[in-house]
Amino acid sequence: MSTRILHCSTSVENYNICVEHKVAGFSNRGPQPNDLIYLAVKIGKKTFCGVRFKLDELTNFKPWPDAQKYVHSLKIKDLEFCRPFDISILSQAGGPSWGVKYMQASKPISDQNACELLNSEFDKDKIALFVPYEIKPPTEDSNITITNFNDSLLEEAPLTRESIKVQAMIAEIGERMNYKVWLPKNDRSRIFEVWQPKPTSLLYDLPLNYDDDTIKTIENIDVLWIKGRTIVRAFEIEHTTSIYSGILRMADLMALQPNLRIKAHIVAPTERKGKVMQELTRPVFKLILAQSCTFISYNSVKDLAKERRLEYMTDAVLEEFSEYAED
């Protein structure tokens, strides 16, 4: 097992995507399963680390907007979080050229002093959950503009994070309509803080007869409504991550199984509607998703969840809330 630093450069979006989608991408094939990874991102003039994890099995899933840069992608496990610390503490072990010694190309860190520094600094202020970065433009009096690592947000995040609440709401709507519900395994603990499913409504194994690549794509979709062995609806909830990543997963699914005719939805805040429509009309997605993938706003999900007669409705009611992209 090697210790490495995965540096996301200045892409806070990629940093957040790694954690939320439980996947790490590298520009070389050196990193291997069970390597210990410290995830870092540059903000202002400093580079911060607030996440570490171990690498798991190889995957073809690459949810980043610049996915072509990453030739090597692995799932991640054993996630841990801390209050972000300035990774330049490594200069204590590596001197002025610490960045080249320890970060370049995610090389293995052979210097035991550097590994111990990372470990002690991370363990010094660990926290129980991940709070995505939200970055605002620098002000004149501050180069570092991390806006959301404060005590109140850390305390409230498990229950108040909007995307989790909406994901739970969609799952509950499906349950009330008498569909079986699938949730990604890594999301369930957070969703169960908001929604407690009935004993028979949540699926723990997908009752689908597809090849391994299709199953791996399907099991990572945010919410599925299933009847028998048929996927009735598929939902990707996009809040802090890239709109592109959810649409890409839907496109992968349709491309792998073009005869499935699944009705898919990108669910996002109203203010992100324009971005969703822009992505859906990109030539790379348009051919595959034009007639099968729509936008649904958070507000529409909340309105539907208030409906008292959901038990007597079918998934067709979603057509009232769905919006197709126009050329």
Tags for this model:
six-stranded mixed sheet; alpha/beta; five-stranded mixed sheet; Rossmann fold; 327 residues; 2 domains; ph1033 like fold; 11 strands
What does this structure look like?
By secondary structure, this protein is of the alpha/beta class. It has 2 domains: 3-150, Roll (ph1033 like fold); 161-320, Rossmann fold, CATH 3.40.50. It is built from 12 helices and 11 strands. The chain has helices spanning 12-20, 91-94, 98-102, 112-124, 151-160, 162-176, 188-191, 212-218, 243-256, 273-280, 283-289, 298-305; strands at residues 3-7, 23-26, 36-43, 46-58, 72-86, 126-127, 180-182, 223-227, 230-237, 263-268, 293-297. Strand 9, helix 9 (243-256) and strand 10 form a beta-alpha-beta unit.
Question: Topology of this structure?
Answer:
Blueprint: E1 3-7, H1 12-20, E2 23-26, E3 36-43, E4 46-58, E5 72-86, H2 91-94, H3 98-102, H4 112-124, E6 126-127, H5 151-160, H6 162-176, E7 180-182, H7 188-191, H8 212-218, E8 223-227, E9 230-237, H9 243-256, E10 263-268, H10 273-280, H11 283-289, E11 293-297, H12 298-305
Parallel strand pairs: 1-3, 9-10, 10-11
Antiparallel strand pairs: 2-5, 3-4, 4-5, 5-6, 7-8, 8-9
